[in-house]
Structures are given as C-alpha cells and as structure tokens.
C-alpha cells in the first residue's frame, strides 16, 4: 500500500478498474476454454471409439464407465462426486445396464437404492479410455506441452475455482 500514497486517487481508481477489467476478460476466456475443452474431450473419445468400431456407446457413457472403474457405486454417489447431472446419470446407467456394460443390484439395506459395477464388457471400455488418456499424457510430455508441475498447477487452480463455485451454490440455499 505504500506505493499508492504518492499516486493521485483518480490514477489509482483507473488502474484498479483496468486490472478488474483485465481479470474479467481473462476469467471469461478461461470459462469458455473449460467448456470447449470438455466438449473436445468428448469428441476425442468419440473419435477413438469410432476408430475402434465401438459405436454403441456415446462419449458420456464411455467416460462414465471410466470413472466407475473398479468401484461399486450408486447413481447418487456419481452425482455427489460431481461427475454427472441427475437425469443424465440415471438414463445413462439404465442404457449401460441394458447393453451389458454394467451390472446392477438392489441394496439389501435400502431397496430403493441400486448399486452398479462394471461387467467384463464395461471393464474393456474402461481400459480403452484409460489407454487413450495414458497415450495423451505421454504425448503432452513428449511434445513439451505440459509437464508434471504444469498439470499440477492447472489442477490446483481448477480445484480452487471448484471450491469457490461450490461455496457460492451452498450460500444461495
């Protein structure tokens, strides 16, 4: 704050307004980038599945199988982890069970609750997506696009934004 003592008030306000506007522009650019990256990730998965001839799954379903992995979960757990919206996860789980990618079983404790886990067919899809992500990670490193420190910095910043947004939602209700 000592630097601002010698700066006229109007100049300080102008500089603050310029910094605020620059931050807003960068924030909106980052939001657009996150949205585009998510859509692009789905396109990358779709292209890989088309290349392999796995046409009965959409990219969201493939990502859902990847995220379930070796776990046994409920739809509610997938929603609470922040992966999927309510109707979206229920619809996709139903389709994945019908297609033989997931096994479902009613909870003995709460008959309303259904637990799901991957079948052998579902584990195969999990492996395809896992190999795809591993190949991408290796490519990012090999082409000097991103290293461990860079990816950790991105993840840390995104987690902070996630916490902030979560707090905003909780504050509303």
From TrEMBL:
<dbReference type="InterPro" id="IPR036390">
    <property type="entry name" value="WH_DNA-bd_sf"/>
</dbReference>
<feature type="domain" description="HTH marR-type">
    <location>
        <begin position="27"/>
        <end position="163"/>
    </location>
</feature>
<protein>
    <submittedName>
        <fullName>Transcriptional regulator, MarR family</fullName>
    </submittedName>
</protein>
<dbReference type="GO" id="GO:0003700">
    <property type="term" value="F:DNA-binding transcription factor activity"/>
</dbReference>
<dbReference type="GO" id="GO:0006950">
    <property type="term" value="P:response to stress"/>
</dbReference>
<dbReference type="Pfam" id="PF13463">
    <property type="entry name" value="HTH_27"/>
</dbReference>
<dbReference type="InterPro" id="IPR039422">
    <property type="entry name" value="MarR/SlyA-like"/>
</dbReference>
<dbReference type="InterPro" id="IPR036388">
    <property type="entry name" value="WH-like_DNA-bd_sf"/>
</dbReference>
<dbReference type="InterPro" id="IPR000835">
    <property type="entry name" value="HTH_MarR-typ"/>
</dbReference>
């Amino acid at each position: 704050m000592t630097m601002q003592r010698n700066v006229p008030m109007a100049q300080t306000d102008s500089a603050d307004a310029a910094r605020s506007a620059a931050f807003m522009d960068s924030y909106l650019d980052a939001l657009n980038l996150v949205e585009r990256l998510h859509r692009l990730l789905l396109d990358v998965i779709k292209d890989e599945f088309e290349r392999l001839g796995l046409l009965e799954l959409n990219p969201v379903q493939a990502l859902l199988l990847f995220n379930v992995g070796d776990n046994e979960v409920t739809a509610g757990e997938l929603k609470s982890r922040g992966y999927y919206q309510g109707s979206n996860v229920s619809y996709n789980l139903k389709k994945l069970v019908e297609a033989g990618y997931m096994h479902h079983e009613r909870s003995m404790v709460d008959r309303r609750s259904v637990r799901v886990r991957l079948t052998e067919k579902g584990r195969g899809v999990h492996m395809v997506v896992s190999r795809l992500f591993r190949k991408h990670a290796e490519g990012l490193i090999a082409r000097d696009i991103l290293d461990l420190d860079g990816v950790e910095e991105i993840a840390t910043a995104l987690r902070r934004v996630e916490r902030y947004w979560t707090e905003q939602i909780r504050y509303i209700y």
